[in-house]
Amino acid sequence: VLSFKGTDCADDIVVDAGMVVTGLLSSNIGALTFGRHNAGITTFKSKYGKLFKIVTGHSLGGTYAVKVAEAMSDIQEVHVFNSGPVEGIPHKSCYTHHHIVGDLISANTGNQMFVEHLAGNWRTISYTCHSEATSRHSLDNFTK
Predict the structure, then answer these.
(1) How many Å is the maximal CA-CA distance in the chain?
(2) pTM > 0.90: yes or no
């Protein structure tokens, strides 16, 4: 399992702001922070070779997870949690977006105009907010 965490530093905040403006992770903006993951991605590919591979992420990390899965040919599953927006219709892997109803950040991810029904390999599962979660967007919704 290769996982990506959400917004974590000042560079990530710049990426988030760019996504608010454009609605997508643009190549130029995403390069600011995505590049720091290259070493981990390379290690993941070489260490786990032909094993069953899953990529996951929360929020901005979910956007990165989809980007990595689209770049690699041998990812079997992608599970993202309250993911940020993704570009285009992902098609190389089996994608599951775990979404909390009412979370504005992930409200349109993967289910813009029911695109998951058209693409066939993207599904969105919606949940209610956990009573102990700090917010609808919080990862606490999935870990408590």
Answers:
(1) 41
(2) no
Residue 36 CA to residue 23 CA, distance in Å, equals 22
Here the tokens at position 79 are 């599970």
Find, among 30, 37, 2, 35, the residue nearest to 15 by Cα. 30
Per-residue pLDDT reduced to its tens digit, 51-101:
888 999 998 888 888 888 887 878 889 999 998 877 666 666 788 999 999
Interval 130-139: pLDDT, tens: 999 999 988 8
Residue found by looking up tokens 């029904």 in the block: 117
| Number of Cβ within a 10 Å radius of residue 15 | 23
Instruction: In whole angstroms, give the CA distance from residue 79 to residue 114.
Output: 18
pLDDT on residue 47: 87
As a whole number of angstroms, the distance between CA 110 and CA 117 comes to 10
